Amino acid sequence: MTGKDRQDRQDRQDRWHWLLPSHLVAPDGTARPRRTVRDWAVDTALFLLAALVGLVAADSSAEYSGPTVILLDQLTGAAACCALWLRRRWPAGLATGLSLLSAVAPVAGGALLAALFGVAVRRPFREVAAIGALAVAASTVQVFVRPDPTINAGIAILLGFVLILLVTAWGMLVRSRRQLVEALRERARRAEAEAELRVAQAQRLAREAIAREMHDVLAHRLTLLSVHAGALEFRPDAPPEQIARAAGVIRDSAHEALQDLREIIGVLRAPGDSGDAGDPAGGNRPQPTLATLDTLVAESRDAGMKVVLDSTVDDPAAVPAATGRTVYRIAQEGLTNARKHAPGTEVTVTVRGRPGDGLTVDVHNPAPAGPVPHVPGSGQGLIGLTERAALTGGRLEHGPAPDGGFALHAWLPWPA
User: Fold this and answer.
1) Which ranges does the record mark as transmembrane (predicted)?
2) Lowest CB count within 10 Å: 352, 374, 392, 406, which one?
3) End of a domain among 125, 150, 175?
């Protein structure tokens, strides 16, 4: 239900409040529960209070009224008090009727005050003001229709006005407090919903980050497959040892690529995963850092690449994990691109830096000597690396080198 629809329903309920049972229909049009134990206790207390006020008024008027008037006052007061049990169903109608009745029957004054309290609690201000004005007018009329010889007329009018004003103000205070409590509850519910939404969004972003990490690894594996399969295709006369080694690399890379692909699908399918740095498939596999760069280089050398690693970082473990992971991914992407587009060339990976000055990473490969077999790629690796470097507060540049090869250069912050 939109806000406009809710307001229209409220306006219709206010217009036809004479017919709507207010204790069964809430302001938004939804059904209210039946009277609770607390409601019964409040209604009973108001009934007894109104009966007490009526008895006092009847006893006071008996001194200057005849037997018939006294009997009618007693019957009227009893009916007015009993009518209070309908104040939750028809608060405005009951208060209006009791206001008119109190103009000729002082014994209905207590019931009128209780009914006015119910109206102030449940109805909007304009309606409360109108019924309150009617009650003040009826109280004024009562002073002249049923005067009390023991009280000055002006004092009686002022006393009636003050009582009606106090009861109405009390009811409006209760109404405001209830609205405040409901607003706070709604705000709490909304805050909980927003917190759940933020958690879900954080989980989704974390899963996407893990999927990107695994995509880089998967691209590395598939590149190995493509390169060695191409080598077998273009050199069918290679020695059996090289063919066996290439077949072993293809087999291992295919197995690892399938495993990585399974993990990516598992991450994207699992909405409840927190998406931490561990393996979402269930292995808690550690993420690569600068300390594992040697392993990456050794793996590339085992695949037949010529790689020179020149690192002056004495303690790779001291590099922040996020920065070290970015260095690893940059080197991995550079080696992957060199394997695709410049097979057989010597790739140089240079890492320099110290705390406070930042880390620089350079990956360079010369131009290939001969024709290069076409290896398809997504073309998104360098774009993703540029974004990754920017997110860590660094920068990445890439392009053709002066010697005709290709170079990657990145600078990443390393706080002191």
Assistant:
1) 40-58, 94-121, 128-145, 151-173
2) 374
3) 150
Show which of 124, 150, 176 is a domain's final residue. Answer: 150
pLDDT per residue over 345-402, tens digit each?
899 999 999 888 899 999 999 988 777 666 555 556 777 788 778 878 899 998 898 8
Q: How far apart are CA 282 and CA 289, in angstroms?
A: 20
Structural domain for 343, as ranges? 288-416
Closest C-alpha among 410, 396, 406, 403 to residue 340: 406
Report CA Rg, the chain.
Answer: 43
Identity of residue 193 = A
Counting the structural domains of the chain, the total is: 2
Q: How far apart are CA 14 and CA 21, in angstroms?
A: 12
pTM of the model: 0.41
